[in-house]
Every structure is written in structure tokens, then in C-alpha cells.
Write a structure and sequence with these properties.
alpha+beta, 2 helices, rod-shaped, YbaB/EbfC, YbaB-like_sf, DNA binding, Nucleoid-associated protein H8876_05680
Length: 117
């Protein structure tokens, strides 16, 4: 045993306290991310197509919450046009929700200097 060392005590590994602090910070960050994701899940984004003929609302979970179709665009002889209007509005609402989600998450992770976040 080296001089000045008491029996049963091991020297702390260099940086062990720092590692524990980093783990606590990561756990706290994970809790904040989970809370933020729950908030995002409750958000909604709405988009229209065909000059307002079709309106689609999606949730933060990227699920369709509502579709509104003006009766004048329902043409039994042109179902393809209505399908296209629904697809355009849905894709735009999903794109908006993705942008909202990314913006909210980037606020949380800004300044961390962690690659990929």
C-alpha cells in the first residue's frame, strides 16, 4: 500500500464525479425531451388545398384529426381530383407538423453541442 493511503479506501477514478454529473444531465435532458414530445403530440397543424376546398388537420402524433371537404368539389365523375386535393392537404399538414416538432426540439437541444441533436 502506498504512503498516505488508508486501508479500504480506493482513490477515485479521475473524472468519475464528472461522469456522474453528465449522466444526471442526460437523464434530465431525456425527461425534458419526453415532456416536450408529449406537448408536441397535443399540437395540431392544418393545411388546405384547392383554394380551401379541402382542409386537413393532423396531430403532433402525425395522425389525421379532421378532414373537411366542401360539397362543390365532390364530383363523382372526377374522384381523382378529390383524391389529389386530400393528398396535397394531408402532406402539407404533415410537413408543417414535422417542422413544428423539429423547431421545438431544437430549442431544447440548442447549445448542447451534441452531434445529431
Amino acid at each position: 500500500m502506498g504512503k498516505g493511503m488508508k486501508a479500504g479506501k480506493r482513490p477515485k477514478a479521475p473524472g468519475a464525479g464528472n461522469m456522474q454529473k453528465q449522466m444526471q444531465q442526460m437523464q434530465q435532458m431525456q425527461r425534458k425531451m419526453d415532456e416536450l414530445q408529449a406537448e408536441i403530440n397535443e399540437m395540431e397543424a392544418t393545411a388546405t388545398s384547392g383554394g380551401g376546398a379541402v382542409t386537413v388537420t393532423v396531430s403532433g402524433k402525425k395522425e389525421i384529426k379532421d378532414i373537411q371537404i366542401k360539397p362543390e368539389v365532390i364530383d363523382p365523375d372526377d374522384a381523382e381530383m378529390l383524391q389529389d386535393l386530400i393528398m396535397v392537404a394531408t402532406n402539407e399538414a404533415l410537413r408543417q407538423m414535422e417542422e413544428i416538432s423539429q423547431n421545438e426540439m431544437s430549442k431544447l437541444t440548442a447549445g448542447l453541442g451534441i452531434p445529431g441533436l
